[in-house]
Amino acid sequence: MQAGAYQKHIPQRMRMLLQGRVQGVGMRPFVCRLAQELGLNGWVNNTPQGVIIEAEGPAATLALFAGRLPQELPPQARLSACTTTTIPAAGSEQGFHIQHSHTSGAPSLDAPPDLAACPACLSELFDPGDRRHRYPFLSCSHCGPRYSILRALPFDRERTSMAAFPLCAACLAEYQNPADRRFHAQTVCCPDCGPRLALWDADGHPQASRETALAQAVAQLRAGRILALKGVGGFQLLADAANQAALLELRRRKHRPHKPFAVLVDVPMTRGLCHVDDDEMNLLVDPAAPIVLLRRLPQAGVAEAVAPALPWLGLMLPASPLHHLLLRDFGAPLVATSGNLGGEPIAIDEQEALTRLNGIADGYLLHDRAILRPLDDSLLRMAARRPLLLRRARGYAPSPIALAEPLPPVLAVGGHLKNTVGLAHGRSAVLSQHLGDLDDALSLSQCRDTLLELPRFYGVQARAVACDAHPDYAGH
Ligand SMILES: [Zn+2]
Ligand SMILES: [Zn+2]
């Protein structure tokens, strides 16, 4: 045997650090499956720096693994860097497995944004034979709530508000099965072990649960009532988009006489409302599920009070399975606007909603999974054939922005109006979600909380704080 051929067969070991959107997107189960398919030994884990892989096997197989990995990533994963080093072979491992996450060390600024239901979860949602048929909280390693339920990095169930829901035997079996789509999916749950739906009246008295809650909520919307919905990143107010009287009442109660309301639709409904070109459709169907501003058709089938005298309508596809169920059962476009008064952050918990939406909502459709930070619906439109983000929140925050030059750790306070907070570290910066206008006391307090939370969440100590020193700005 020649030396080169011999070299191919002695085990080698490599260590890879994957950075980018690599947590909360099914990366570890994907890596594990690929390594097992190729017969490699080793492990993969999540760390605050990114996903770390150690793989051992013949050099040719390792090269195949390193070549296939970036080509076959899970749909929502994005690699910004992949560093590979050769390390001494261990020789003693059997098989490939997912290790428990490490929580120490210098962090990277990568936390997963919330993702709308993936096609596989949607087909289960509407499949009468599936055990998650019509379950409003189904998700998998490719989709589901992420940043809105995440306490700290790395992204593991124990550091999310799903920690309150221990897995049942059936979910645990899926979680442990490398062949299952829910292998190591941190948000896995089902009707037996996961969050539950409830309907409360305007005074906070429970009226119904589960399917009955959903059916009664839809009946209330049909009757022209205004429903507060606990969505992905906070409360929304829903109403029938064709009911002029209900929308005028919503405007009166919300002290919002003119500003347009967003409309929750499915893809076929968009055709009766707006011109939608291919780029705009791509924005609508993105897993971020933003509100997209679109050119309104003259005969658009919504009430005038949705967006008075405007040539635009803001349309949004369902951001969660619960939105899908509501829309499917209601069968027509629904106004979905933030659960707040103008300029305030959106309410995120039931008691807060009962106080702040008192006199606005006729009922509350709720669940018992905590939302940990307010994330309003994101808003964008196409401008000069490029997406223009007008409000960057749910689905986009906190995806990092790559910087051309490395920066020391700097915290930035942001502007007085439409405030966001920023944190730069190395070659990345993260912007907080949209926090609102700082002349509002609740928004100012949310801004202060986020200034404290952001460096703590990422484990970065800011060396400087940048702010606008304008004497009339609250942010200095
Ligand atoms: Zn899914
Ligand atoms: Zn379960």
Low-confidence stretches: none
Helix content: 10-25%
**Structural class, judged by helices and strands?**
alpha+beta
Percent in strands: 25-35%
Mean pLDDT: 92
Query: How many separate helices?
Result: 12
Number of domains: 3
Taking all Cα atoms into account, the compactness measure Rg is: 24 Å
* Extended strand count: 20
> Main beta sheet, described?
12 strands, mixed
Are any ligands bound, and if so which?
zinc ion
- The CATH architecture of the largest domain is Alpha-Beta Complex
- At the third CATH level, what is the topology name of the largest domain? DHBP synthase
Q: Kindly report how far apart the N and C termini lie.
A: 72 Å
What spatial form do the alpha-carbon principal axes imply? Answer: globular
- CATH class identity of the largest domain: Alpha Beta
Describe it.
This protein has three domains: 3-98, Alpha-Beta Plaits (2-Layer Sandwich); 197-367, DHBP synthase, CATH 3.90.870; 400-466, Nucleotidyltransferase, domain 5. It has twelve helices and 20 strands. It has helices at residues 3-9, 27-37, 59-71, 119-125, 169-176, 210-222, 244-254, 267-270, 278-284, 321-330, 350-356, 441-458, and strands at residues 12-21, 41-47, 50-57, 78-87, 96-98, 197-201, 206-209, 227-230, 235-240, 262-264, 274-275, 291-296, 312-316, 334-338, 363-367, 379-383, 386-391, 401-412, 422-431, 464-466. β16 (379-383) and β17 form a beta hairpin. The N and C termini lie far apart (72 Å). The mean pLDDT is 92. The chain binds zinc ion (ZN) (2 copies). The site of one zinc ion has 8 residues, from α4.
